[in-house]
Amino acid sequence: MIVLSESTEQIEASASASENKLMTEAAQLLGCQVYHIPRDFERCSTAENALWHIPNYPTITAGIWIGYIPELEHYKAIYHAALNKGIKLLNTPLEHQTALEFDLFYPHLKGLTPDSLVITSTTECIEAGELLGFPLFVKGAVQSRKMQGWESCVANNHEELVKLTELLLKLKYGSRGRVIVRKLVKLRHKCLAPNGFPMGREFRCFIYSRF
Fold first, then answer.
1. Using the 8-state DSSP alphabet, how is residue 113 labeled?
2. In CATH, what number is assigned to the domain containing residue 150?
């Protein structure tokens, strides 16, 4: 297994940087071949230059990317540059996009997750509020603003929904031009985090299969 890691020796005070570092260290302990790659093309210009130090593999070898959430075009560039070297990332660009963007994976989860709508402008807020009812959880197609607290994600009325929608549409990295409006569900919890979010346990399961 080949690992392409964006983790660096530089100290970065963020949860993502810490997770990248820990995952990279775990990969090394497991005996994976790890290659460090830059987070962007600011200095190297192209994906091919970013992977210049990686040798060509004679047979197709599976690869994992450890890093920050990339722009879709960035992922595509790295995917194809790695493939040209005989390294095939586990997810194709389409699979990556489907797993990352809410409106693409929602059809697969409909009925298992709270009712949600995709809107692309504030003019759709009235209809969204009428269909789902308030309060509503509001996020971008890729990311939410939960790090800024409860009020940055929850709309209790039409005015708040419009305000959150405007903010998210300006954050092109997290919304990619779409805002997800979700019916807010009251989950069982015992206390609140400092940012106002109910504290609970989150379980994730990743399944890799090729037939």
1. B
2. 3.30.1490.20
- pTM strictly above 0.90: no
**Cα–Cα distance, 14 to 22 (Å, whole number):** 13
Same domain, 48 and 131: no
164, 172 Cβ separation under 8 angstroms: no
In a 13 Å sphere around the CA of 211, the CA atoms on its Cβ side amount to 1
The C-alpha atoms of residue 4 and residue 9 are separated, in whole angstroms, by 15
Summarised one tens digit per residue, pLDDT across range 112-170 is 999 999 999 999 999 999 999 999 999 999 999 988 889 999 999 999 999 999 999 99
Split at pLDDT 50, 70, 90, the class of 200 is confident
Q: Is 170 exposed, middle or buried (0-12, 13-18, 19+ CB in 10 A)?
A: exposed
pLDDT score at 190: 85
* Model confidence band, residue 210 (pLDDT cutoffs 50, 70, 90): low
CB within 8 Å of 71: residues ≥ 6 apart: 173
Q: Which of 98, 115, 132 is the last residue of a domain?
A: 98
Asked whether residue 118 falls in the same domain as residue 89, the answer is: no
Count of CB atoms situated within 10 Å of the CB of 160: 18
Round to whole Å and give the CA distance between 192 and 149: 11
Nearest to 171 by CA among 136, 137, 143, 138: 143
Distance CA 168, CA 197 (A): 19
